[in-house]
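Reviewers asked in the last cycle whether our approach scales beyond single polypeptides. To address this, we selected a multi-component target totalling 1105 residues and predicted its structure end to end. The input consisted of the following lines:
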Amino acid sequence: MMSPAHYLFLSLALFLIGCVGVVTRRNVIVVLMSIELILNAVNINLVMFSRVFGDVAGQVFALFIIADAAAEAAVGLGIIIAFFRNRETVMTDEMDLLKW
Amino acid sequence: MADRVQDDVIRQQQETLLGADELVLNMGPQHPSTHGVLRVKLKLDGERVRGTECVIGYLHRGVEKIAENRTYQQFAPYVDRMDYVAAVSNGLGYCEAVEKLLSVEAPDRAKVIRTILTELQRIASHLLWLGTHALDIGALTPLFYCMREREEILKIFEKYCGARLTTHAFRIGGLQYESYDGFEQDVGRFCNDFERRIQEYVDLLTGNSIWIGRTRNVGVLNAADCIALGATGPILRAAGVKWDLRKAQPYAAYERYQFEIPVGTNGDTYDRYMVRMEEMRQSRLICLQAIENIPAGAIMGKVGKVIKPVPGEVYHSIEAPKGILGYYIVSDGTTQPYRVRIRPPSFVNLQALDKMIRGHLVADVVAVIGTLDIVLGEVDR
Amino acid sequence: MLDSIVFYFFAGIAVLSAALMVTRRNVMHSAVFLVTTLLSIAGIFLQLRAEFLFVTQIIVYVGGIMVLFIFVIMLVRLDVPLHQMRFRFQRLVALLVAFALGVEVLVILLLARKLPGAGLFVQSTAPVSKLPPNSEELSRTLFSNYLLPFEIASVLLLVAMVGAVVMAKGRKRADES
Amino acid sequence: MSPTTQAVLQFLQAYWVELVCGVVIVAAVPLVAGYAVLVERKLMADMQARLGPMRVGPHGLLQPIADAVKLLIKEDIIPRDADMLIFWFAPVISMVAALTSMGALYFGPAFRVANDINVGILFVVGVSSLGFLGIILGGWASNSHYSILGAVRSTAQLISYETAGGLAMVSALLLAGTFKIRAIVEVQSQNQVWFIFLAPVGFFMYLVASIAETNRAPFDLPEAESELVAGYMTEYSGFRWALYFLGEYANMIVVASVATTLFLGGWLRPFSNVRWLSWLDFSPVLVLVALGVYCLYRAGKQPVKVQSGFMWAVALGCFAVAALFLTPWIFSPLRFALPGLNGAFWFLLKVSAYIYMFMWLRFTLPRYRFDQLMHLGWYILIPLAIVNVFSVGLALLLEMEFGWNRWLALIVTTILTLGVAAYLVHLNDKRGAAASAAVVASDSYAG
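The resulting structure, written as structure tokens, was:
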């Protein structure tokens, strides 16, 4: 494997790109996808350290994160569909009411 | 009425899957399962059909108008081009209508041969329907079996009159051709084989749970709706109405033969399938009875070379494979009809399409178009 | 040698397509680029000898989650985003924030003396040939030390499933019930 | 010699077997897929009382090549409003996914690309399922209503039947206790029984799910030629279309190989542990010789000289391959190649049998409707697959913890599973009757 620094920089890059996506994009679907990207950046770190320390626990956590990402995607997309059904939009700045 | 339609539209809009606009799917005029150049506009909500609109006329040739500029004999081949998979039946209806106008009757021998050929044509038409209907629902194999049997019938036609599809088999007043040597044997051999062959279709389809699932309760049209929409033929009988012109107003030689009118109960696609299958069996029985005893004698009645009916009008209808086929002919005393109006079964039955598929899925659309058994040549004329 | 080629290959694709994902206007293109990113991250996992995670990443992320995303994108059938990025200002702020965050993390990493990794507490990494079979090892750990979290995760997934169904199903249509 | 060249040489030295096998797979799969199409058309013709392709080459044997040439030189049409990038790329995804997943397969004990990877079978399944992305994206990018309906159907079908298929595989994986492909077959060899006999319900469910995964009739709803014209492929033509087609057939080979590995004993000969049936090892040679003799017999009956010449060539080819199979028996230093050759023969034979099953079903059954497909997946297959996993686990528990006879335990639990299956079917029938009474069924995408 490469040195841990390589992986740290890779994951940092992905994390920041994800953050920019979350903040700048107006489409909720893209925002959700950016969040998935952030989770993946974290996963890279976890797996890398699991390899470095020779402890498989890091991979176990990465597994949990993937499960969590699946749950999040399912609920998030469900909300998007429900929202789209009512408002015919998936733009964040038009989601300005808690209830109607 | 208008209010109800408007409410319908509004409700449809509210009901769509995600509140987005309906998906309008243009099925046809070039689509593998619209059986020709039928175009159906489907308003879809997901895969569910919320409304349909039939666009017809792509095959319009003005058959009725052509009739006004042809003599009575000259027009006879044109009717073959309407329902081109059941040309013999079309010809029978037209010839009998003109005979009625002329008040002549075909000789017995001609009537019996007409009956045999028409019943063979009914089997051929139903076979083509069965094959394509099964293909629409995704069963590939029955089509080829059906074509195999239909080929035998077409060979008989070819031997009889030289043509296979648009036969022009009959003439006004009787027949032009005497039946060929071995005609009875050919028909008899076909009928004997056919019993075994029809069992093959039954084995492939009737008990198949996918087939039942695709056809049961799909495209239901009950008796009241059938009558209101003017649907006739197997569609009407599948809804449980025992109405068959061969029994109700016997023409040709039908009153001489024993046969049953099969009827269904639910009026769904499966019932129509069963009714048509049974009709093929009954047609086979009629043919078998008829070849037993073909009366000898002339084949042409007393009709002159120039047909010039007295002024008047006549309506004559027969039970074509697809339903009631009617000819309304007005004569002004010349050699050419003043007006011919044709009541084609496919055209009238097609009305029921919207009623039958509303609320069903896209896949059912092709099943229902198949079960209507339309021929666009006849719808558009 | 081979190792570094593999790493740079996957890392390059991952970063490039992640950047494209964030900047493409067409949502479907974004999704496709995210799929590419996820696949190359799976490649990184493989390079780190985490075979099971590699396969999980492909099956769950690409085969499951992304298919769900694409499905939703097709369902909501948006016309091309008309006034995407209405506030140019926001993009600037975002870049600034990201830059600040990046600098912050970098500083922390650099504060750990020299380059990161070198300054971290690292035992000597086991050579590839000495690694225990990955999926066996992983499942042993998962089903012994982390059994309770595993069960909790399964409950979480169940809750999410029910929640998603409830959310997406919507109100029952009055005339059909 | 520069260090780079040295590194490349080292790499080649270490991985030449893998590279050769990989190249063989990439080169052979399109050809095999082309001939699978021919075989399918011939079989269909035979079942439908007709002849099938007869014009190009004797008995249409050169038809696939003619088709390939036609597709290559066909005009390439791209709809005006299509999403160019994805439209170009989607068929490639389909094809590449299927080919990549073959990398982890063992076609016989010796012929493989990746050396027994730790998660072999998961890799194959996971990567081959990526092919669906090609279908979905292609359908979306075509910007046509038929295509998008096909793509949506495909997505829903994928999600439903991947689950069922995966759970069906678990029953065999429980028995094998490993993901490694080679090890799975070796376990079957040690147990002296194929897993199809230990987990028949699992095999049957995998069969159904794999038909659905490869979009074959009666589950071919994404393309459904009589409803959606050609579904996701409606706007595709020429070689892009051919790539989809190749992807579909390559995928069929993949699922058949997975089923063969998991349930049908991989490259093992039937009764591989029965001594007096060892003569079965000669069957590749026997089959090839018989095929060659048949070709010679047909060669005399060909109407055209070129055709009979071609038949002769095929016959001689068969004899040559038979001789190849026979050499290790005669020439003992080559004896080591024998298991590999025989293994490949049996493996491919089983794969062909499995694919024949697909074709047979396609010509026999009508197509399911979308809601029926979903009902079958979610109300019958998935619950049954879960029960099946439980019951196989229970059988293993009974065997290991309570010392039951393995066969007794498996028979008891299989009966249990079948009982549940019967109950599920009964429930579904009742639900179907209730739903059809209301005529309009519930929303088909609610799942």
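Residues 87-117 of chain C form one domain. We regard this as preliminary and will revisit it once experimental data from Aim 1 are available.
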